[in-house]
Amino acid sequence: MHSLQFTAESSSNGMVERDFTVGGIPGVLWSPASGADRAPLVLMGHGGGAHKKHRAMAGRARLLVTGCGFHAAVIDAPGHGDRPRTAHDEQEIAELRKAQAAGEPEGPIVVRYNARLAELAVPEWQATLDALQELPEIGADGPVGYVGIGLGMAIGVPLVAAEPRITAAVFGMMWPDALVEAARQITVPIEFDLQWDNERIPREGSLALFDAFASKEKSLHANAGKHMEMPRFEADSATRFFARHLGRAATSPA
Amino acid sequence: MHSLQFTAESSSNGMVERDFTVGGIPGVLWSPASGADRAPLVLMGHGGGAHKKHRAMAGRARLLVTGCGFHAAVIDAPGHGDRPRTAHDEQEIAELRKAQAAGEPEGPIVVRYNARLAELAVPEWQATLDALQELPEIGADGPVGYVGIGLGMAIGVPLVAAEPRITAAVFGMMWPDALVEAARQITVPIEFDLQWDNERIPREGSLALFDAFASKEKSLHANAGKHMEMPRFEADSATRFFARHLGRAATSPA
Prior knowledge:
CATH topology of chain A: Rossmann fold
Order of helices and strands of chain A: EEEEHEHHEHEHEHEH
CATH superfamily of chain A: Alpha/Beta hydrolase fold, catalytic domain
Strand content of chain A: 15-25%
Oligomer: homodimer
Number of helices of chain A: 7
Helix content of chain A: 25-40%
Number of strands of chain A: 9
Structural class of chain A: alpha/beta
């Protein structure tokens, strides 16, 4: 088992940010500045082309850490952020850009590339969770959630299906094609975000994917607008979802 | 124009409850106990077979009044609460009970009966809003919202379509049949609740009704569960929706 090594630390406005590595995978852990008590942990999967400290990640971390007193952790996905791209990454990215430039459907390329990234990332996340749970401020038996949009969903659905330590998850905005089978194995509470007028991901497939989750508690949040127009209040909603399911009341104003 | 007459007043835990009548229609207005400032108003339509002080109404009022500093008002729908039933009411209710007892679809009866109640109730709500806006603590130019589930949606959709003073609305849980045309005329922000496993109202029709709203800002909240299992956190979500759109921040914890 790889242990976690912290490589940098800073803090601002009540939140501590610590860069770390686990077995060579770079990540970041955001935590409340005060309090050594054990607190729930939310794993966050970044989007395609983004990285562990993308502002969407830092923004969600702020809500979870200062709003709920939780920890939040992100690792760079394979080929993303501070990790090298392989020849396969370069090839898939080139094909994706070619399709986008030609106005051709990007779905088939994203689906197969992200499915490959998920195969690599699921064991990385499991090793990272092992290491994070060694920290006394997290602990081995505390509640764990997962949130991922786009690539973060492509990785998160198989991760949550495989990982019984994750007991609540927020997903959104990924083609359903490679995810339906894993979704059928998920029984923990989920919140699922989709854009009603998504010009890239067909609505019917997303509704069918929501239907596939075996979770007794699941909520679909569909907002008017295109793929890139997901409203910011869904990050607040996700925070409240984790506050409900991971066991602490959010203290931030609505 | 009918003026509003208060008939009873009580208060508890920071909320004043005043019974009123407008042109013979009985209603209730819940307001913050402190502060004479003008504040936004949310009109609330109760469900079928319920009444103005049903606990679902009092519960939503508590969130809006003590959470946001808003006013909240309900009037009894025709044939409901303190209002007499007509022979037509009795006949439709008898038909509904007969269908329910026989295990036959109640949809067609609810749709036609609630459409008739909406014809009566829309002008009643408009007269009530006229009278409420005469109160100095509400005023003629303040923000107005509407929330209604079930019968409250059957009345609310034509009301919001007809009434430009209402600038944000929350709906849910009504057969779409009589509502699609009015929904197409609505352009204000809406939040729409449906139960994913609703055994009474077909899912496809509800999704088509959500699609019909012309609102640029609209959110569908679909939760796993049957007709009567709508989760309580949707009342919190509706409160935050009104806080966003009627112009004051909610102060209650999430």
